[in-house]
Amino acid sequence: MSLIQNRPPVGPLHRHISLRPEVQALPDVASLVQTLRPEEPLHCIRPAVITAAAQAFTASFNGDVLYAVKCNPEPAVLRALWEGGIRRFDCASISEVSLVRRLFPGADIHFMHPVKSRAAIREAWIINGVRDFVLDSADELRKILEETNTPEAARIEARPGLFVRLALPETGAAINLSKKFGADAATAVELLRAARPHAGKLGVAFHVGSQCTDPLAWRDAMALAGEVIRAAGVRIEVIDVGGGFPAAYPDIDPPPLGAFMAEIDAAFDELNLPGVKLWAEPGRALVAGGSSVVVKVQLRKGNMLYINDGVYGALADAGALKFRFPTKLLRSRPSPGAPDAAFGFFGPSCDSLDVMHGPFILPDDISEGDWIEIGQLGAYGTCLRTGFNGFDRAALVEVRDPAMLETAGYAPQDDIEA
Ligand SMILES: *Cc1c(COP(=O)(O)O)cnc(C)c1O
């Protein structure tokens, strides 16, 4: 069963409670919970945190920044990113393409999934003005060239931007993407040569894997990209260093953003490719801190809490990937307080895989009826909600709270010149 359903990011049961332009006027989570006493999961978006992360990233990256929409396609999130200076979007499906086009008629949209349906290529090219496509095989190159050269497409003067996605050796990332996507070096050389005569612009792209905490992974990837470009012997216009930039979680305190940018800049200088531009496609690093979910405790059995959200909701990565997330108790009744203890969670579905071992640290007097705010869910969290077993209700609010964990380099108070 798939965790991701083909539904709009804001479903019919996903009420949008408030959308105020002034962040200062937004409520804070604790007082919201006090007044709403939410019975369903409450998704709390922090637009100011997202805007600040986007500003910090665009200020320190030496090129164009594309936001990877799959990480969180919520319109309120996309608007906060736009506010922070993001004007380019990395989309992987035609639904993402049309969502971004609807919200931002002037945005640049790039189709960066190496395997696309022919219909999606056509619709993106003809209707949505998408000009850049990624590929990692000769067959996909042929698909892109055929679908952008139909009689219907004849009025479009441009030639497609073609990006060859390079597979990378294992890095220190939490999630490796090179097992599924990417051409080996020899194939990439052939693809660059084959694509050049047809390309409006030609690029090399890679992805070191998501939540990669080792800045050297980019240096190694850039070196490999350089070898491939040299071996191909053709001119290119762009190197796209992908996403993978890490966020902070309770047991992960990644190096500051500047450390990653320093490696990328140094490696790029070494390649000595005048006229070539750098692109990046961050997802997680821009939005992880930008959302939390408030859940309600339905039952306590020892140190296991049965809560009203789980792995089929916003907490998928707390299950299979064993991510830990920061937690905060919001009591439903007064208490003298209690020392912290380690808890695990059971989600609301009848499925025994709906378990999150954490450990999640909470006061030991937590009980049925209390709420827990679970943080750092802006990336691959709030957008993974499914309707499995009927637990698909949630409400969405925008709040003014800071991120529950601050990642060095993305924090709002950080010097963005760094
Ligand atoms: C998922 C994805 C990204 C974003 O990755 P993060 O780890 O969230 O930064 C960027 N580019 C592509 C092609 C992706 O599939």
Automatic annotation (TrEMBL):
One GO term of the biological process aspect: putrescine biosynthetic process from arginine, via ornithine
Active site: 350
Pathway info: Amine and polyamine biosynthesis; putrescine biosynthesis via L-ornithine pathway; putrescine from L-ornithine: step 1/1
List of residues that carry N6-(pyridoxal phosphate)lysine: 70
This protein's UniProt keywords: Lyase, Pyridoxal phosphate
Orn/DAP/Arg decarboxylase 2 C-terminal domain segment(s): 294-378
EC number, as in UniProt: 4.1.1.17
Domain spans labelled Orn/DAP/Arg decarboxylase 2 N-terminal: 51-288
Family named by the database record: Belongs to the Orn/Lys/Arg decarboxylase class-II family.
Protein name, entry field: ornithine decarboxylase
Protein source organism: Acidocella aromatica
Top-level taxonomy: Bacteria, Pseudomonadati, Pseudomonadota, Alphaproteobacteria, Acetobacterales
